Amino acid sequence: MLPLPDFCRKYVYTFGRLAGVGSRPLLLFLANNYFLTKTSVHLGVAMLSSALAMSAISADVHRNYYLKRFSDDRVLVGLSFFNYFFSLLIMGLVGICIALCVGMKSGLASVAVCSVLFFCSEKLADEVLRFELFNKSFEKWGWLSAGKGLFQILFILFVFFFMGTSTPSWFIILGLSVVSFLVFGFSVPSLFFVGLKKVLVEKRWKTLKKSFKFLFDIRWLWVLLLMSTMIGYLDRIFILRFSKDILPVFMIVVTGFSVIQMGMDFYFFSPRRQDFLNKKLTLDSIFRNKTFWITLGISTILGVGCGIFAKMISKGGDMVEFSYLPLIAFSQIMYTLIIIPQQLLYWENLFKPMLYVDAAFWFCVGGLLLAGSYFGGLFYILLAMCGFLFFRTSAYYMMVNKYIT
Question: Which residues form the domain of 114?
Answer without folding.
Answer: 1-217
